[in-house]
Amino acid sequence: MDNNTNFRRFFGASLTILGVVVVLFALVAFLSDGKPVLGLSVNKAESTAPFIVGMIFLISGINLVRES
């Protein structure tokens, strides 16, 4: 395996882990009923943005790992 493939797998795994963490944060923020989550006050409407970003990270990370 060359260096580029190893980097793509590492970067893909990092994106996947980051995506899972952000999606979990968005889900907890959605269910928190306006209470602060990790020091951040996020209401239900604002919790959709981290969910979408997390899903983008998750899907792109899985695709990087799968294709390398």
Descriptive terms for the model:
single chain; 68 residues; mainly alpha
Walk me through what this model shows.
- By secondary structure, the chain is an all-alpha fold.
- It has one domain.
- It is 72% helix and 0% strand.
- The longest helix has 29 residues, at 3-31.
- The radius of gyration is 15 Å and the shape is elongated.
Continuous helix count: 2
Radius of gyration: 15 Å
Which stretches of 5+ consecutive residues score pLDDT under 50? none
Mean pLDDT: 88
Oligomeric description of these chains: single chain
What helical percentage do the residues reach? over 70%
How many angstroms does the end-to-end distance come to? Answer: 10 Å
**Count of discrete structural domains:** 1
Strand content: under 5%
- List the helices and strands in order: HH
Strand elements, count: 0
Biggest sheet: strands, sense, closure?
Answer: none
Approximate shape: elongated
Structural class: mainly alpha
Protein name: DUF3098 domain-containing protein
Keywords: Membrane, Transmembrane, Transmembrane helix
Mind sketching the topology for me?
Elements: H1 3-31, H2 48-67
Helix pairs in contact: 1-2
Question: Quick summary of this structure?
Answer:
The chain has 68 residues and is mostly helical.
